[in-house]
């Protein structure tokens, strides 16, 4: 891509003035995270993966339990490929649909769980121009089950743009879109899209004035039914905003939040909502003159607090990557981006515990039975070896330790993936359970290198 033209003095001055309005105390490390265990970033190292790229778009298909990726920029070419990633198997699959949207980057996608499709809008299809004027305004949907893209051609739609943000509002069954840019013009408009009626609607929200911005991610907090925005690029200054916002679709209003501490201002970062911990997770981005960032933060909308995490491992500093939350496996998934030298990255990371598949036997447990053991078979994602599990760390429901023996490695379910068989004291398991038709059991532990893993199974418990 050609070097960006220097921002004019007027634009820089305007950005500095706005940033001074948005100024406040910088975020600090507030210590241990009270909302989770000691989560860390894990490099998944899948055998096959998409090529390195930046400014791709990803969405999480909650009905199929997979991540969908489309397009991006590899440093030379714009891309139009579609990939699907399974955390459980740690595999990327290139989908090769018969029809695809044109190649692009800096587009946005979100998954509509009611209509079971990914929605894509806009982007930039000319990496050799500056300022970015050849932008797109097309709307597409993608169905994983049929591996098909469809262009929707709604009558009205947002203007063409890049660097906008999109989320799915599950309460109202609609896609929300905000911001973006075209050329040197930055946008602050808010739109909603209904897949069912194929209509875009300009919202004209009330409340606080939402400053126009681009490269500013948005997450949807399903507990509070609000969209959350942090930071972004204001008028191309490179400084990066450091403000926190919420959008209430029911009231159609934006409100600036004023947390006492918060991350450094930035743009081209990512923000997703972790529904298990009920917090937004922020990673990375860039800001002038520091460059790319590699920090991890949590935001709790209920308490309006940002908290810096200190994971034992982390992706390298980067911007323009893809990131989503996998609600099935309760992990954040990150792919790609640009590093400090503008190399295009192709690594896959998760934030949380390594997901494992567990199968508890018996499926029905009688509290008055005299069974000596409860058996569990454990599978790990591809490229991880169950032989590396430290059996002394395994706990069932954070209470019952695995017996040191007998243990055995085999393929008990015949899926060609090795399982580790461990046993638990039947009496100890019965002591922590109450009768129920669907009782969730959680098994956790560590690998010999300290990587945390976790899996769940549901059994029936009777008196």
Contiguous runs where pLDDT drops below 50 for at least 5 residues? 1-36
General form: elongated
Percent helix, as a range, is under 10%
- At CATH level 2, the architecture of the largest domain is 6 Propeller
- N-to-C CA distance: 68 Å
Kindly give the count of domains.
Answer: 2
Largest sheet: 6 strands, mixed
Architecture blueprint of SSEs:
Elements: H1 9-21, E1 40-43, E2 57-61, E3 66-73, E4 78-86, E5 91-94, E6 108-112, E7 117-124, E8 135-143, E9 148-151, E10 165-169, E11 174-182, E12 185-194, E13 199-202, E14 206-207, E15 218-221, E16 226-232, E17 241-248, E18 253-257, E19 270-274, E20 279-287, E21 291-300, E22 305-308, E23 322-326, E24 331-338, E25 344-352, E26 354-355, E27 357-361, E28 364-366, E29 373-379, E30 389-396, E31 400-401, E32 408-410, E33 419-425, H2 426-431, E34 436-447, E35 452-462
Structure, described:
- By secondary structure, this protein is mainly beta.
- It folds into two domains: 9-352, Neuraminidase; 355-462, Sandwich (Immunoglobulin-like).
- It is built from two helices and 35 strands.
- Strand 34 and strand 35 (452-462) form a beta hairpin.
- The longest helix has 13 residues, at 9-21.
- Residues 1-36 have low confidence and may be disordered.
Short descriptors:
463 residues, mainly beta, Immunoglobulin-like, 6-stranded mixed sheet, 5-stranded mixed sheet
């Amino acid at each position: 891509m050609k070097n960006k033209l220097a921002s004019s003095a007027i634009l820089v001055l305007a950005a500095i003035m706005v940033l001074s309005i948005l100024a406040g105390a910088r975020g600090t490390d507030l210590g241990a995270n009270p909302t989770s265990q000691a989560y860390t970033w894990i490099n998944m190292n899948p055998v096959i993966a998409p090529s390195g790229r930046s400014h791709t778009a990803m969405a999480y298909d909650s009905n199929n339990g997979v991540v969908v990726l489309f397009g991006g920029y590899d440093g030379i070419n714009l891309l139009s490929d579609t990939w699907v990633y399974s955390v459980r198997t740690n595999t990327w699959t290139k989908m090769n649909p018969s029809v695809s949207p044109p190649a692009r980057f800096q587009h946005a996608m979100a998954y509509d769980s009611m209509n079971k499709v990914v929605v894509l809008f806009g982007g930039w299809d000319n990496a050799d121009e500056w300022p970015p004027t050849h932008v797109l305004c097309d709307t597409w949907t993608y169905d994983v089950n049929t591996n098909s893209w469809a262009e929707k051609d709604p009558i009205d739609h947002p203007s063409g743009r890049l660097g906008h943000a999109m989320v799915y509002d599950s309460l109202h069954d609609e896609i929300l879109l905000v911001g973006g840019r075209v050329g040197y013009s930055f946008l602050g408009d808010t739109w909603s899209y209904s897949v069912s009626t194929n209509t875009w609607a300009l919202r004209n929200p009330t409340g606080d004035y939402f400053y126009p911005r681009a490269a500013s991610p948005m997450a949807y907090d399903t507990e509070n039914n609000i969209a959350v925005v942090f930071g972004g690029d204001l008028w191309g200054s490179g400084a990066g905003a450091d403000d926190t916002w919420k959008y209430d679709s029911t009231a159609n209003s934006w409100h600036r939040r004023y947390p006492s501490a918060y991350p450094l201002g930035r743009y081209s970062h990512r923000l997703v909502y972790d529904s298990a911990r009920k917090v937004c997770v922020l990673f990375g981005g860039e800001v002038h003159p520091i460059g790319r960032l590699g920090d991890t933060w949590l935001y709790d909308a209920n308490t309006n607090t940002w908290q810096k995490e200190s994971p034992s491992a982390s992706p390298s500093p980067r911007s323009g990557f893809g990131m989503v939350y996998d609600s099935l496996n309760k992990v954040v998934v990150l792919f790609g981006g640009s590093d400090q030298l503008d190399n295009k990255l192709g690594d896959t990371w998760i934030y949380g515990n390594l997901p494992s598949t567990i199968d508890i036997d018996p499926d029905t447990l009688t509290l008055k039975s005299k069974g000596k053991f409860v058996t569990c078979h454990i599978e790990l994602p591809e490229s991880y070896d169950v032989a590396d599990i430290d059996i002394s760390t395994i706990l069932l429901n954070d209470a019952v330790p695995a017996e040191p023996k007998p243990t055995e490695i085999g393929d008990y379910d015949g899926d060609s993936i090795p399982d580790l068989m461990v046993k638990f004291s039947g009496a100890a398991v019965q002591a922590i359970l109450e009768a129920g038709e669907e009782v969730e059991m959680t098994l956790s532990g560590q690998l010999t290198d300290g990587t945390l893993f976790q899996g769940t199974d549901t059994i029936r418990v009777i008196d």
